[in-house]
Amino acid sequence: MKSIKIFAPATVANVTCGFDVLGFAVHKPGDEVLLVESDAPGISIVDIKGDQGLLPKAAEKNTVSVAIKAFLEHLNLDTGIEIYLEKKMPLGSGLGSSAASAVAGVFGVNELLGRPLTVTELLPFAMQGEMLACGEPHADNVAPALLGGFVLIRSYDPLDVVKIDAPNDLFATIIHPQIEIATKDARSILKKSLLLRDAVKQWGNIAGLVTGLIKQDYDLISRSMEDVIVEPVRSMLIPGFEQVKAAALDSGALGCGISGSGPSIFALSRSLKNAKQVAQAMESCFQDLDIVSDVYVSPVNQQGPLIIS
After folding, report:
1. Residues 125, 248 within the same domain
2. For a designed S-S bond to 51, which of 55, 223, 231, 296 qualifies (C-beta 3.0 to 4.6 A apart)?
3. pLDDT digits (tens, 9 = 90+) for 193-233
4. How would you class 71 by CB atoms within 10 Å of its CB: exposed for 0-12, middle for 13-18, buried for 19 or more?
5. Shared domain check, 124 and 225
6. What is the pTM (predicted TM-score) of this model?
7. How far is CA 254 from the centre of its chain?
8. Number of domains forming the structure of the chain
């Protein structure tokens, strides 16, 4: 029987001002999925590790199997697939945990079957996993996890994604305080309407951030990393957020904000050395609050999914 094992990376969605339309991939953490072609038709999840028994094994209730099912139905195939999922990133972390599983699954089955679709064509199927996870088929996690690098979702209807060139010496610091925020809950508290002046400011910031990345203008990147719409609401769910953000900026970070729906917080720096200094400052803040945290420092992952074996 043929098999393939895939690693798919964690992602930072929104990137402060780009709610639901901007994200980037990192090298760690991530998820691993082993797919084994089976003689029996249908999709089955045989084993899940690293989830503390929290994730469902029912094929219709897990993001990895839902994405694979959508892919196979699109191609009118009844190929049997056995799934072995190893979660190597925390659940409800704001790091695209559900997206990484879905991306690893759909990328892997496409490879297993001889690449009938391009990588970009896999995106709608991975988004079905996000629909299951949080009720919205948003792409700001699955797109960078699948394509690598920074990705802008210009439009959802029709779906239009654009990879953005970014500086090679840009490093991300991510800290995950060991508290859990459900994506559905984090979306439910958002305002249903906003002031035009706030919308205009946000539009300017995301345009400035994308321009700064392309032009490698670090001052413009820094000035543009401001969220006047989502962060003021979601930050209230994260103990110590303002102190951690201030510590990151005081340590030289270009900008700092909530990763996805939180509680993870990310910062961007211009060098690995500075990113590590930022990590120490952020971790120290959570230690002062007696909150245990995990810290990751990574360049931007330009590759996306990786075939392990």
Report:
1. no
2. 55
3. 889 999 999 999 999 999 999 999 999 999 999 999 999 99
4. buried
5. no
6. 0.94
7. 20
8. 2
